[in-house]
Structures are given as structure tokens and as C-alpha cells.
Design goal:
about 50% helix, globular, two-stranded antiparallel sheet, Alpha-Beta Plaits, alpha+beta
């Protein structure tokens, strides 16, 4: 290798090293169901692809909104510190979305699940498609060119086992840490907003999952999500109810909506 090539390679490697490192992260992997047909329909319309891309950018912006944009100072000191330092990254690649954030603060798990709820709610209510996925804790590296992620492998494997339930399951360790943070915040007498402590629910099979409609309680501008979710689910049941593969997913989403509106999520 010529000296100038060696210098150029070294500079590139230094650049790569400065763009990220392998670290422990909260990671949510979300598979957008029915996306191939959705994309095909969009490509058949003039300006369709550009419209979908713009919509996805808006969804990403909602999930990564700068820290402090929605909440004032939180009464719980540890949770407030985690909120101010919270910097998630969201990537949408074809039919999947991935939200990651470094686990620099134990309380960050609360905001990780809250942002996952926003991402999931907006994907469903904006695109009119169901999603399925998993939220995990594990090693992750992403420099924009290379993704090396045992956490992502774990999340994809968990998502594929979901079958007929259109939900984002939460790994037991993530659920344990979230519940511990909520107990600490609630027990300190300096309680965080109720919606922030209700991002997790348990299904009838014992699995923890992201209670994504809680995003509608974050502020008044998001309350329309519940109405939109009902319309999306009603339309999906009409179209896909008889389908043995798609129907059960829409039926689960309908049951979830009913439980959420009835206050029956534990």
C-alpha cells in the first residue's frame, strides 16, 4: 500500500471510530405488516413513493422529538435527568423500523418504551397498517454504514415468534427495569405523569407488550390517535377478517383497543 493510501485509510477508520461504538442499548425492532402491498400501491400512483417517504420522515420526527419538547421538569430527579439526556435514533429500512438508545441511565428505559409507543402508534394510525416487534436490551453498533447488533438479532427472533398477535413484546429484563423505575418514581412521592408509567401491559399469555395507545395521553394533540386507531382497526377487520393469516392479527388489535378504552390493561 502506498503511503498516501495508508493515510487515507487511516483517516477513514478514524472517522468510523468517531461515529459510534459497540455499546449496551435499548432496542425496539418493529416489523410493518402488509408493507409490500402498501408499497406496490404507492408506486402505482404518481408521487406515491415521495408521499410515503415524507410520511415516514414525519413519523420518525415524532419518535425522536428533541428532549424536553413535551415535558417540563419532572418531579422525580432521576427520571428528569434521564429525560433531558435521552437521545434516541430511529431508522426505517424497507418494511422495518428500529429505535435505539444507549443505556447510559437506568431511568432511560421509561422514555425508551414511551418513544416506542409513539413510533408504533404513528406507524399504525398514519400508514393504516399493523406492526409487530420486540423491545430488548443488548449490544448494538451502528455507524451509518455497518450495523453489528446481537440486540437486533434477538429482537427479530422474538418478533418472528409472535404469530397472530400484532404487538411489540417487551423482553422480561426490559419489563423488570421499567417496572422498577415506575415503582421508584411512584413510591418517592414525586410521581411522574401517569401516561409515562403506563407504557407497559401484560397480555393473556403472560407476555409483556408496549401499550402503544398510551401515546394518545401524552398531550392533547395526540388524542386523535385513539379515534384513528379505531377507524384503522374497523377497516382492517372488514377487509381481512376472513383471512386465516391476517384476520387474527386484526382481531387482536380490536381486542386491545377495547381493553385500552375500557381501562382493562394491567
Amino acid at each position: 500500500m502506498r503511503p498516501e493510501e495508508d493515510v487515507a485509510l487511516s483517516a477513514r477508520q478514524d472517522g468510523w471510530a468517531s461515529r459510534g461504538s459497540f455499546r449496551q442499548c435499548w432496542l425496539a425492532y418493529v416489523d410493518i405488516l402488509g408493507y409490500a402491498e402498501f408499497v406496490g400501491d404507492a408506486c402505482a400512483r404518481p408521487g406515491g413513493p415521495e408521499g410515503v417517504i415524507a410520511t415516514l420522515r414525519e413519523i420518525i420526527a415524532q419518535a425522536v422529538e428533541p428532549a424536553g419538547a413535551r415535558l417540563g421538569p419532572l418531579p422525580d430527579v432521576a427520571m428528569d435527568r434521564a429525560y433531558r439526556d435521552f437521545r434516541p435514533q430511529v431508522r426505517v429500512i424497507s418494511d422495518a423500523a428500529c429505535l435505539t438508545v444507549e443505556t447510559t441511565d437506568p431511568a432511560s428505559v421509561v422514555f425508551f418504551l414511551a418513544r416506542t409507543a409513539i413510533l408504533q402508534a404513528y406507524l399504525i394510525c398514519t400508514l393504516g397498517l399493523l406492526v409487530r416487534g420486540a423491545a430488548v436490551l443488548g449490544g448494538h453498533y451502528d455507524d451509518g454504514d455497518v450495523v453489528f447488533s446481537p440486540a437486533l438479532i434477538d429482537a427479530v427472533d422474538s418478533e418472528r415468534r409472535q404469530c397472530h398477535r400484532a404487538r411489540v413484546v417487551v423482553a422480561p429484563e426490559v419489563a423488570r427495569r421499567y417496572l422498577a423505575c415506575c415503582d421508584e418514581a411512584g413510591g418517592s412521592g414525586e410521581r411522574a405523569p401517569a401516561w409515562l408509567l403506563s407504557c407497559l401491559a401484560r397480555d393473556d399469555d403472560g407476555e409483556w407488550f408496549v401499550n402503544y395507545l398510551t401515546a394518545s395521553r401524552m398531550d392533547r394533540t395526540l388524542q386523535r390517535l385513539v379515534q384513528r386507531h379505531r377507524d384503522v382497526v374497523d377497516d382492517g377487520l372488514r377487509k381481512h377478517g376472513p383471512d386465516p393469516r391476517k384476520g387474527p392479527k386484526w382481531a387482536w388489535a380490536c381486542e386491545y383497543h377495547t381493553r385500552f378504552c375500557g381501562g382493562r390493561l394491567a
